[in-house]
């Protein structure tokens, strides 16, 4: 019986919006890169700062946001329990995380929802003073796939202006809540971003082509991510977070080849800002700092470090890449 070759090899359907899928990537031979201080593993701590920008009746959304500690929901009116959990992140949790970062002397990247920084400007001042990166995480913490293309374009524009106002620097990176098929096109169209992180498909940055322009992607991860404390397929205790983070780092340091890779850790002040969970984070940071081949880096520094070693196709230098992205 003859088999249809399309059964084994099927291309994406023409005319479907959004980027083409790439199921091959680097394959067996990724580029060999090294990070700051010749490190083999770059640990990238991300603080998803969203508190005060989430969907609430109080802000006129007519709905309460999720990611709550318990599987309860209040419909058709304000849910003060959910609102107060988010408030914990901006009132207490973020400052506990800052104390941990200060003690360990590590830089972090904020995926910053612009309105959240507007509503707690002391956080914007603190992260700017520390030299942390504020990457764009939307104007509000809203699903971009729910927006029209024009609405999303406007949301990106407003987020840039707001973050630049509160922190003193425009964002160089972008990661929104649930991207749309238009997100990457709009990020490249805007012209001022060095990278986006709206993907989960690699352990290394990579170049892609958007509208005849080179564009750098610095992937994110939802594995070592504290959202799993309150989701059904997640961590039952801080020890499980620590064990997952430790096993991830151990494998990346000894992954069977000489390739340097990145490790993403995702945090939310309302979740990891709680004492027991913060303790697991602090213990992992201390563990990672025992190794000479590990570096803690901001996401923007991973982007520039990678681009210097693996230039964009047909680009001679990182300076040309950055000029092109900002032209």
Automatic annotation (TrEMBL):
One of its GO terms (biological process) is carbohydrate metabolic process. One of its GO terms (molecular function) is hydrolase activity, acting on carbon-nitrogen (but not peptide) bonds. It holds the Pfam family Polysacc_deac_1. Gene3D superfamilies: Glycoside hydrolase/deacetylase. Residues 80-297 form the NodB homology domain. It comes from the Bacteria. SUPFAM superfamilies: Glycoside hydrolase/deacetylase. This is Polysaccharide deacetylase family protein. The lineage of its organism: Bacteria, Bacillati, Actinomycetota, Actinomycetes, Micrococcales.
